[in-house]
Amino acid sequence: MKKNVFDGIFIAILLIGVCFTMSAVSALCPIEPIRENVKLSISELQEEGLYPCFLNFKLFQMDNYTDVIMLQESVTNNDNALLKSAMDCTIYKSDVYMDKIVDLERYLSGDLDGMEAMNYSRYWHGYLFILKPLLSILTYQQIRVLNYIIFFSVLLLVFLKMWKKLGRIEAVLFLVSMICVSVPLIPYNLQFSWTFYIAFGGILWMLHISENTKQTNEIWVMMLSVFVLGGLTSYVDLLVTPIVTIGLPLTVWLMRKYDWSNLEKIKAVVIASFMWALGYAWVWASKWVIGGFITGESIIADAISQASVRTTGMKWKGMELTIPNIGKFVWNTLNQRGLSIPLLIVAVAGIAAYLLLCKNWGEIRENLWLLLIAMMTPVWFIVLREHSIQHGWFTWRALVVTIFAGLMFIVRTCDYKQVKERMRWHK
Predict the structure, then answer these.
(1) 239-266 mean pLDDT
(2) How many CB atoms are located within 10 Å of the residue 308 CB?
(3) Residues 224, 202: Cα–Cα separation, whole Å
(4) Cα dist. 298→122, 231, 289, 294 in Å?
(5) What burial letters (b/e) apply to 48-60, b meaning 16+ CB within 10 Å?
(6) Which H or E run contains 116?
């Protein structure tokens, strides 16, 4: 027990040390090569605009706006000492919201008239550890192509590993879940990609420890693993789809626990979720403290203020963010696009089919842990309702957790052979 506690403390301290070191290393990257490649990227970004949208469908809208912020962070020539450069994150913007690409171009040319500095230091912006070296040799568009190649290579690896270690049904349903959240569009923007890379890595790691760790140590290793996953998510993510880094790996790990009861799995879901949240909060809060100490800025106050808005903001575009109002908003939005009735018919048909196919209450009871995981994303949306609805056109991809766990629940509790028997009985 004591050894486990010391191991946990060591991992927590090491995690902060690794995050801080990576940020310091990224601050060492020479700025000039990065500036040149960012300049070469601007014309194509201007052609695309800040929010290109595929098929004129809001959920297929891209977010060049945030990627442009990442590019500006990469070229900010901070003349401060190394440690202060690693912790500080200041970008420059004009009063015109849609001029973000123009702001970047003006910053590169040294024209800062009418632009104000905006402190963005409440996040680690850990993606700069990867992005800045890449921008030293590639343009943004070339990085996008590279991102597509790497993303789908890793996705294929995950699919093949799941096929081998879990089974073809589990692997196929995972792929179906990814398709349901428009997986071909995820690598288009860098900010969409980071959490999925962590989730994929988490899945591969969970499959590894479930096979190569002694049973007596596996649970503790898993708990430390989700703690690290939460911390790494906090390091690179800007509240895009963080929940995928716990929901997907945890589902895969528990599917390997063939001899566990439903209650044991539910306990594991609760404890693992707590450990993930602890890792997320630990790394994020450490940035506020360390960054504030080194830069002398009031990062803690800014972070708490923003967290309060995200979690307690109860109005959006004049609408009270109550559950009924959000439900009406979603229904009206779907209705405007002629989707509400078709989706309602599909839902009713799906429920009817499930009732026809479901095995028995015993099977349902033994797989309730999957429903608990499926609820992770809706609960996250409710807690961060202001942020989730304001940015719903990209936060919706966190529903991959709900879809995957939900599909697994359906498959495990249904038996298509019963259709023939029930139809015969009705005759």
Answers:
(1) 94
(2) 10
(3) 12
(4) 9, 22, 9, 11
(5) eebeeeeeeeeee
(6) strand 116-119
Structure-block tokens of residue 213: 């760790």
pLDDT band at residue 119 under the 50/70/90 scheme: confident
Alpha helices, DSSP H, located in 213-261: 215-236, 244-255
Query: Helix, strand or coil for residue 235?
Result: helix
Which residue, 198, 191, 122, 249, is CA-closest to 394? 191
Structure tokens that stand for 417 in this block: 């052979």
Tokens of 252: 């895969």
Q: Who contacts 425 (Cβ-Cβ below 8 Å, separation ≥6)? A: none
pLDDT, one tens digit per residue, over 192-247 is: 999 999 999 999 999 998 887 776 678 888 999 999 999 999 999 988 999 999 99
Neighbours of 105 (CB within 10 A): 17
d(CA 284, CA 92): 23
* Structure-block tokens of residue 217: 């140590």
Provide the 3-class DSSP secondary structure of residue 114: coil
- pLDDT at residue 335 in the model: 80
Give, in degrees to the nearest 5, the angle at Cα 156 between 154 and 160.
120
Which amino acid appears at position 108 of this protein? L
The residue behind tokens 């895009």 is: 240
Tell me which amino acid residue 227 is.
F
Cα 319 to its chain centre, rounded Å, is: 26
C-alpha span between 2 and 92 (Å, rounded): 49
Q: pTM score > 0.85 for this model?
A: yes
What is the mean predicted confidence (pLDDT) over 355-381?
Answer: 89
pLDDT recorded at residue 61: 93
19-61, pLDDT tens digit by residue?
Answer: 999 999 998 889 999 999 999 999 999 999 999 999 888 889 9
Locate 94 and state its tokens: 């004009």
For the chain, percent of residues with pLDDT exceeding 90:
54
Query: To the nearest 5 percent, what fractions of the chain are helix, strand and coil?
Result: 75, 5, 20
